[in-house]
Amino acid sequence: MKNIIFIIILGAALGLTSCQKDSSPDKMTQEKKPVVYPTLDEASKNAKTSLIEIMKLQRDLKINIDQKELELSNPEGSVKHYMVNFDSFLSSDSTKALKDISKDEGITIVPFVYNKRVIATASINKLSDGWRVGGLFNNRITSSINNLQRVREQSSKSTINYFEVPNIDAQIYEVVSDSAARYFADYGTLYNTEKETSLPELMKVLKKDAAEFQRKFGKDLKDKKLVK
User: Fold this and answer.
1) The total number of structural domains that make up the chain
2) Does any domain span residue 14?
3) What does the alpha-carbon distance between residue 122 and residue 169 come to, in Å, rounded to a whole number?
């Protein structure tokens, strides 16, 4: 229910100024279309502004974000979001690179950082004609990327890739620096991003649970009775 409220309020925050300028039905319909920005930087700045506007409009929302710190924050160190192909994941071995079994859907996670801490994040979608704000208020991703700040700071050239494994709700983070990769995961009570993990060990655990999911629900997925 809260996610629905966030979407409604976000739409209001993005369209507030334009609707005030022209309240005709045709104009309002036109302005309510998602805004596309020419650069990732511009989309990120708009996402931050929208976050602040939502917090001002809904002060009773419990979202664990300090508004003052958010206002003082800056977008830093974007994270690429990849979607793991579930079928490929089931059949892959431990030597297979995650990128080889994943799809880049043009999604970038932008962290807003203040005093070396990630205060909030926004999901930005790459379109054929620019960039669009896709999602806000993902506390789980925000917490994980904040945990990885200490690792990222060990090298000025480090980058973070985020891999989402569907159906089993697993999140894998790859921190790459100096041609070496380190892995962290957020998965149930077994893994959290405060501690580094071995990728082969992690894959073994996740593939076991993925195989169990496939055994129970694979037919329903094939028949499109479940969302893959």
Assistant:
1) 1
2) yes
3) 19
Mean pLDDT for 60-85 is 93
Q: What are the DSSP E strand ranges found in the chain?
A: 74-75, 79-84, 102-114, 117-127, 130-136, 159-165, 170-177, 180-186
In angstroms, the CA 153 to CA 166 distance is 29
Tell me, yes or no, whether 205 lies in a domain. yes
What are 117's strand-pairing partners?
Answer: 114
Residue 66 lies in a domain: yes
**Residues 146-157, mean pLDDT to the nearest whole number:** 88
On the question of pLDDT at 5 being above 70, the answer is no
- Residue 142 is part of which domain span? 2-222
pLDDT band (50, 70, 90) for residue 29: very low
Average pLDDT along the chain: 86
